[in-house]
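To whoever is on call:

I kicked off a structure prediction for a single chain this morning and the downstream step that reads the tokens threw a length-mismatch warning. I double-checked the sequence; it's 385 residues and nothing unusual in it as far as I can see. Pasting both halves so you can look.
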Amino acid sequence: MVAAAPGANPAGAARFEALDSLRGVAALAVAAEHLNAQGPVFGHAFFRSGWLFVDFFFVLSGFVIAAAYGERLRGGFPALRFLWLRVGRIWPMHIVVLIAYLAIELLALAQGGSGLTGRTAFAPERAVSALLIQALLLQALYTPAMYAWSLQSWSVAVEMVLYALAAIGWRALGRWWWLAGVVFALGAGALMEFPQQVGLYHKLLRGLCGFGLGAGTFAAWRRLERRLAAAPRAVMTLAEIALCLGVFTMVAGFDDTIPMLVCDGLFALAVLVFAAERGRVSGLLLTRPLMLGGLLSYSLYMVHPLVESLTMTGLRQIATLAGWGDAFIPVAGNNRPAIGAGYGLLADGAALIALACALAAAWAGHRLIEKPARDWSRRIAPRVG
């Protein structure tokens, strides 16, 4: 998901602004899923399976990285400089969020109780031994640290592995890089059908599957670009609407019988069609609010679990003072409260408040951390490699 925010493409690279906006929509779906909301809107099956859009991020990342750097890496662009730019894009926001989790843990320890977090400070899920692994974004390779501290950073760690493989692949394989990506995707998709055998490396396989298909999709885009650009707008609009309905149906009806390769294939087709920006849906994606969502997508993805948890905890405290404390129920697997299904639109209202707070924090994170760090890494980049 961190492939290329608006303005992040190297000079001369193609811009895909509708895809930027789609990334923002996907980030909102992931943030909504993590709320475990029980209302009639956010409790819908579509939002309960919103985690699938992380795989959309992988597909989109493979496509955009291929567009921005594929030919440049083939032509001699230093791999080390490429990796430096990617680290400068994703690591600063990651480390700030990780420090925030550490600060909360230290505060809970100083209080001498579990009132702040609902558990003992530095419990197994916050083991100090996993902190360094996560700080270095190595949990995709050392899976015992996968679910410690910053849970959402697992996909960022997978992205770092994918970037390294991409830098090696484009340099070593030349014009056949796209074929290698598709082969890796098919192999990873096949291995994911054996979850017990692959364990938590399932996460890395998800990245390989999506990123490889994304790279192959860009190769297809180069061959089809002119035809898609010349296609009638009505036809492209129908194609965009059909893909939106297809993705919605797939996500809402997802279960373990649907291979991840099928999901990624549909995401790849959506990326290919929306890259042309020819239909009416693309026109909607190019409006300012949705483009702003794309701009904030990475920061939103990184901050939303912490901000949503703090927001819902605060709302529970307010509701308790007002005599509505029973409306909140614990969410299995974490300490974040949610409003029970019996409270209808009130549960959706609480979810909207939490999402609004997450978006506000994402805006601050983008302005104060993500963008300054990205700009600094670009200034340093010419000296690297």
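Update from on-call: the warning came from a stale cache, not from the record. Cleared it. Sanity check on the structure: The longest helix spans residues 345-380.
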